[in-house]
Amino acid sequence: MDELKYEYILIRFGELTTKGKNKKDFIKKLSDNMKMALSSFNGLTFENTRDHIYIHLNGNDPDKIEPVLKKVFGIRAFAKAYKCENDIDCIIDGALKVTKGKSGTFKIKTKRANKKFPIHSEDVNRKVASAILKNYGQYLKVDVHNPDYPIVVEIRENNTYIMAETVLGAQGYPVSVAGRAMLMLSGGIDSPVAGYLAMKRGIQIEAIHFASMPYTSQAALDKVKDLAKLLAPYQGCIKLHVIPFTDIQLEINKHCDSSYTITMMRRMMYRIAQRVAIKNHCLAIVNGESVSQVASQTLNSMAVISQVCDMPIIRPLVTYDKLEIIDLARKINTYQTSILPFEDCCTIFTPKNPVIKPDLNKCLWYENKYDFESFLQKAIENEEILTIYPDSKLQDELF
Ligand code: ATP
Ligand code: MG
Question: How far is the CA of 344 from the centre of ligand 1 (A)?
């Protein structure tokens, strides 16, 4: 028996299998996203079929590819696949190769897509299992209900593929099939998680950050960039719009009661986010708001604040508890960066008693007291646009 050499990774799709006529576009998008994520590997080729995508490894190490694939949304599961001829002796030889050195329990599941193959699936299962038991019986036992190694034998038109270890993918939809949205990215725990969940549903994100220099430091902005770097691998890179927000905050402080400053500030943030979103062909705004978390996230506050915005506002965390959000932040590896202790623009201008049931007419009255429009325009004119790429130093093993 020759050494085991995997030639393929077989990719199984996630929810997109249910998408009827859009399926073809989705498969193409998923394939393109994988190509982009794996562009540093030389010689990989991709084969799209109706049910799977095959990555031809052409000598690349599949174990190096695995952590990259785990961040590509739209993949339900993937597995290194050993390819052999449609011949029972070759299949048995392949099954012995993929199980060599393993211990625990296994089950053989044969899928006979090629009905011309002369042996029925059940018989293939039996023949392969008895060969494994004969050769490695002291290490491997059969368990048909909950095996450590569900070994899949797929007999297809021209070849058979044998897979021993299936890895769970990132699930969701391929990034960008759902269009583009603007993520309000602070330095906190919530907004990076909101961005991750939006990307998972196929939304390509751009990010907007409101910076309050010199009240906030360069370190606070660097932290936001680091968070964007941690989100970037899911879609290749992220465009980050940094908006100078200090003048607007100072002006708000001058013209309204301190209990209303947060409400007013957030109305301005939404106005700017929407304009920058439209300019950049985004169809929605995404943020990390969660009902009742703080004064500006009561239902009354949300209604008064989002009144300035016509565009859909996607709040992936709207019903999440903080502990649930922290759990996800840990999983996607943003938590440690989010809790670094740098001031952000909201914390510096936070009043002691922020209103929890703001009155819309009062907001409109405050806004009539000064020419806020020229401040908004100036902030947008002075935006700094950065393209943020993944940073290998920041990447950790996922999950
Ligand atoms: P925390 O984890 O501390 O709650 P947060 O970023 O969620 O951090 P909130 O005050 O709850 O802070 O803000 C609600 C949402 O508003 C954020 O999730 C984010 O989407 C947006 N936001 C807040 N501050 C900024 C900012 N400076 N720039 C861009 N978006 C912001
Ligand atoms: Mg929050």
Answer: 9
